Amino acid sequence: MKRSTLAGFVVCFFAFVFSLQIHAQVGAGGQKVLAGSALAISRLAVSSVSFAITPPTGCGTDSSGTPTSNLTCGVNGSSPYTGEGGATSLTTWCGGSVPGECHPITGCEEELTAGTWESHTKYYLSADLNCGAASGAIILTPYTDINLNGHVVTGLVYSNAGPRGWHLFGGEVNCTLTHYPTAFLIHGVTHYAYACLQGSNNHGVYRLGGGDQIKLHHIYGHNGMACAKYVQFDGIIPAPIGGWTEPAIDVYNMTFQSVPVGTTCNREYAGVYSETQPVEYHHIRGDIGATGQANAAQLLVIYGPGTNGTYPNYVHNNYLTCERFTLSGGDDCRAILIDGPSRSHVQYNDIWPTNNRGTRLRDAFDAEVDHNYYHQVSGSAVHSGDNDRYSGQGQVVKQSVHHNTFDLASSGVAILYRSQQGLVSESNRFLCASGGCYGSKLMRVETWARAFNSYPVSVSSTAHSLTQPSGSFLSGSAIKPGSIVSFGGFTNTRNNNIFPISVAMPTTLGISDPTNLLLSENSTTAHFVGMTRAYLYNSTIGPGLTPTVLLHYDLLKPSVILTYCNSGALSKIGNGQLTQRTDSCP
User: Fold this and answer.
1) For residues 298 and 455, what is the distance between their CA atoms, to the nearest angstrom?
2) Which of 158, 206, 258, 572 has its Cβ near the most Cβ atoms within 10 Å?
3) pLDDT tens figures, 50-60
4) Domain ranges in the chain?
5) Whole-structure pTM over 0.85, yes or no?
């Protein structure tokens, strides 16, 4: 995570609050940026990458963001041998005959012989493999390609040793463990599983060129571990010399279905979750809620900071649906969750979020969301901000949301943004859904005050610091060096202002206060919130849609600012600051 790149970010208080003027200029290589007296925000967060996904037809959206037939999504979308040496059947895959170059898997927890980077060992199933729904079935081994050959595996597909270069494809994997971590035995030794299909502790030297790559494709299943995950990858692989030029993990043509568990689980992972990066998820058919309500369910998840460098995680050409969420006291679906990565690219996806969230960006530095189609949105299509641990309140987290179509239903929100800075909405199309769009909003940009971890909170005017007795500013909704924070609830009104944070420690914040506003005091009523600033450029507004934006702050003006240009006359709700650019849009 590039959180260190913002360390030492210092802004003159009055210049930032009252005089920040954003203007367009051309950067190196002709790239346009938004530059100001206090910060510079890249228009396209991953534009330095010299390669991009060319969207194939048939799943998600096409290159113009128009939904396709979605015929190539999921396990039935194309041949299960795609990406497996050009083979068209088990016979050709095994070298012209069966078993040929292949080896049958005949029992549970069978010892598979590892291949090499240049030549993987090939295994296949000739029948269903039933090892017990809470037991080990296939133990993943380095440089092995496992063809399920249309059969069903009942049990866990698992390794905690970080094997490199395995492929698994062409069948169904099921398990029925009920919570995590769950203990089970492999050859008499106790292991702990978090998913039906789990590859853990990925690490070590990665050799580019395909031999080390993990491929998971043409698999059907559901998270029988209803309170855990269906697929999990964890462990961080250091970037190879010269940087990444391929994803370490490629997951495609999968079909995921959530398990109806109501609020029994506080979170459900119905698809694939990876802490190992970079990853690529594509041609996936995922659904949450069609068989019953699932609490806080997530389909495609990329989590943690990773080591991708300039190579982004890709989530593209998927068809994802979240059925209408009705659980009282529950939490809605996230079709795509990007939580912590330093570079991620979400594009060409066909998403039906209804009253859920289509794409959730949390702590997502340099994220780009483009050419996606969000249908019948009555929740929020893109929800960003509300940081967790890898970024800070009021920190600049560059994000570009562009060339998407937001089909807004009643009360729907295209983009919800809270307590951070740097999101640019550009060249998006906002439509009124066929059933009407009363109360819908292009953007909600807002902050909500938070209590400190403990009281009394002490301000020192001489040390330019704020201290809390216990807890940590670095966890939860964290504050980082580079955060811009609004304080309120102090007796001395001069402390109720917006300040840049120069130093962040567990119980102490160093505050940039060049004009000596701070006055020493102890407070039991003080609160804080991160500065929120976003940009709305070049919008296309469909007929019947009132272009409304909601801007809200509850501590100190102007802690919420939306700057817009060439988006027509906007209708503003709330007390935040709406600023129209007087020059041309970038």
Assistant:
1) 36
2) 258
3) 345 666 678 99
4) 2-29+450-530, 90-310
5) yes
